[in-house]
Amino acid sequence: MQKKGELVSFRPDIKVMDCTLRDGGLVNSFMFTDEFVRELYRTNIKAGIDYMEFGYKASRDQFDESKFGKWKFCDDDAIREIVGDNDTDLKISVMADVGRTDFRRDICDKANSPIDMVRVATYINTIPAALEIVEYCNKKGYETTINIMAVSKSNDADLDDGLEIIGQSCVDEIYIVDSYGSLYPEQMRRLAAKYLETADKYGKKIGIHAHNNQQLAFANTIETLTMGVSYLDSTVLSMGRGAGNCPTELLLGFLKNPKYHITPILKFIEKEMLPLKEDGIVWGYDIPYLLTGRLNQHPRDAIQFTSERRTDYADFYKFLYDKDSF
C-alpha cells in the first residue's frame, strides 16, 4: 500500500485523541483532582487536540465506587462540571469495555449528554457483544469506534473475519490496539494495510492505540499514519498502564498541521504531570515491560514486579519465558 503524505506535509483527516485520563487512570485508579482534569481539558483545547477521552463507562455493579475516582464511571454530570456546554471544537469521548459496562442504563441519548463519542473495547472473540453496544450508541446519536485489543494475539483468519463483520456494521472508526506493546513497525504496516482495506471497502476510518513496552509506541503510531491511519491516540508524558502510550508531546512535535501546538502540552507537563511523578505515581518504559512486550504477554506480571520494587530482571525473564512454554 502506498504511503500517504510526507514528513513536510500534513493530512487534514488526522485526528488526535488524548487518552491521558482514561489510560492514565489505570495507573492511579482514576484519582485525578478536578483541577487536574479541568486544566487538561483547557490544555487540549489550546493544543488543538481533536478528542479528549475522559475515562470509562464502567458498571457500578462490577466495580466498587469507593476504590476508584469518578472517571472510572464518567457520569454525564461529572463531565459537565468540567466542560460546561463544551462550546469548543474539542470532542468528548468515553470508553465502554465489553462485559464491564451497563450501557443501556448508563448511556443516554446524545442530545442530553456532553459526550460525543463512545469507544468500545473488545477482544476478537467478543466482537458480536461489541457490535451490540455500537448499534445501541449509534441509535442514540453517538460517534462510535471499535478497539480490537490484543491484536498481536489474533490469528489472521480470525482477524479477517472480525474486520469483515465490523466493516458491515454502523461503526465509524476501527482501532488497531497493540495492547502488549509487542509489535514492531514492519508488523504494524501489515496490520494497517489489512485494516485500511476494510476501511476502503466499507467507508470507515482507522485508528491506532499503541503501548510503549519496547519504546515503539511513537514509531508505530507514525508508521501507521504514513499508511493512511488517521485517528491517533496519545497521552501526555506517555501516562498509561504499565509502560504507557505514545507521548502527546512527541506526536504533536511530529505532525505538521498548524492547528496543533506543543507549548500548552509542555506547560501542562511542568504544572501537573511532574508533581504526579514526585508524588510517587509510577508509569513508563522499564525493563519488566520490555520483557512482557518482547514475549507478547499481558503486562500484569510486570506491573506486579514493578510495584514490589524488584530488580532481579534475569529471574523475572526466566519466569515469563517458562510461563510462555506451557
Please list the strands of the largest sheet in the order they lie side by side: 1-2-3-4-5-6-7-8
End-to-end C-alpha gap: 38 Å
Could you say how many structural domains there are in total?
2
What CATH first level of the largest domain would be assigned? Alpha Beta
SSE topology string: EHHEHEHEHEHEHEHEHHHHH
How many beta-strand elements?
8
CATH superfamily of the largest domain: Aldolase class I
Q: What do the pLDDT scores average to? A: 96
In percent, how helical is the residue content? Answer: 40-55%
Rg, please? 19 Å
Which band does the percent of strand residues land in?
Answer: 5-15%
Which architecture of the largest domain does the CATH hierarchy give at level 2? Alpha-Beta Barrel
Structural class: alpha/beta
The name of the CATH topology of the largest domain is TIM Barrel
Low-confidence stretches: none
The biggest sheet amounts to: 8 strands, parallel, barrel
Describe the protein in words.
The protein has 326 residues and is of the alpha/beta class. It has two domains: 15-278, TIM Barrel (Alpha-Beta Barrel), CATH 3.20.20; 287-324, no CATH class. It is 43% helix and 14% strand. The protein is built from 13 helices and eight strands. The chain has helices at residues 20-28, 34-47, 76-83, 103-106, 127-140, 156-167, 185-202, 217-227, 248-254, 263-278, 287-294, 300-307, 313-324, and strands at 15-18, 51-56, 91-97, 117-122, 143-148, 173-178, 205-210, 231-234. It has an eight-stranded parallel beta barrel with strand order 1-2-3-4-5-6-7-8, surrounded by four helices. It is globular, with a radius of gyration of 19 Å. It starts with 14 loop residues before the first strand and ends with a helix. The model has no long low-confidence stretch (mean pLDDT 96).
